[in-house]
Specification:
- The protein has 8 helices and 8 strands; from the N terminus they run ββαααααβαβββαββα.
- By secondary structure, the protein is α+β, with helices and mostly antiparallel strands.
Length: 237
């Protein structure tokens, strides 16, 4: 209670000030996590919007090119901006420099400057497998995918991926070798609060599918999916 010796001099006691400070500290401790979670959610929504626009652009591109997906920089002799799939889609995307970077990507500025992208295409869809007898496996035509709604098309690039134009596709055929191999390509906890868990399962990431829809999948759930089927990025038959 405020103590007043005279009408001219009124002041809070020390105990009252400490109580007020304690109340403010409690309110702050409740608000800060909520604000942090809201910011993470907002960035995930913005990231999902980017991927949906990429999905729409991919479908439009495939419709205009007999079902074929755009090429990645894999196997090209000149690693230039014009060779990356995301710039091939520029006529379908509009603001490509805004859409190609996730708002949660810590290397976003570097990727932007080096013609890179936060979103990388599934190797199976952009890199045919070639053996001694020629092409032995080819999923590069969207029209020939049996289950587009179950076919992973784009992932969020791992922090381990160099922020360079050539880092525009996964190495999905190698993922059965180990979870750590997968983590070299994609970031299953891109949207999270605080430091990452050692296995990067404490968070969530967005995934684009060949029918254009985007799903947010928690890192722990993706680990379960990978454990049950390490070759889950392969288009289902």
């Amino acid at each position: 209670m405020m103590r007043c010796k005279t009408q001219a001099k009124c002041a809070f006691t020390l105990i009252e000030l400490l109580v007020v400070i304690a109340i403010i500290a409690i309110l702050a401790s409740l608000l800060v996590p909520a604000i942090g979670s809201a910011m993470v959610s907002a960035r995930q929504v913005a990231c999902a919007s980017n991927m949906r626009q990429i999905g729409i652009a991919l479908i439009a591109f495939c419709n205009d090119h007999n079902g074929n997906f755009p090429r990645s920089t894999h196997g090209l002799g000149q690693h230039q901006r014009t060779n990356a799939w995301v710039f091939t889609l520029a006529p379908y995307l509009g603001q490509v420099d805004q859409i190609r970077i996730s708002p949660s990507d810590p290397q976003g500025g570097e990727r932007l400057a080096n013609d890179g992208t936060s979103y990388i295409l599934n190797e199976f869809l952009v890199v045919p497998l070639v053996g001694f007898g020629g092409v032995t496996e080819n999923y590069t035509n969207r029209d020939l995918l049996p289950r587009p709604s179950q076919t992973y098309t784009a992932f969020i690039a791992s922090d381990r991926m160099p922020p360079h134009v050539t880092s525009d596709h996964t190495h999905s055929r190698s993922w059965p070798s180990g979870w750590n191999v997968l983590l070299g390509d994609i970031q299953p906890d891109r949207h999270r609060r605080g430091s990452p868990a050692p296995d990067h399962t404490d968070g969530i990431a967005n995934y684009l599918f060949a029918d254009g829809h985007v799903e947010g999948i928690r890192g722990a759930e993706l680990l379960r999916i990978w454990t049950e089927n390490p070759d889950f990025a392969r288009p289902p038959r």
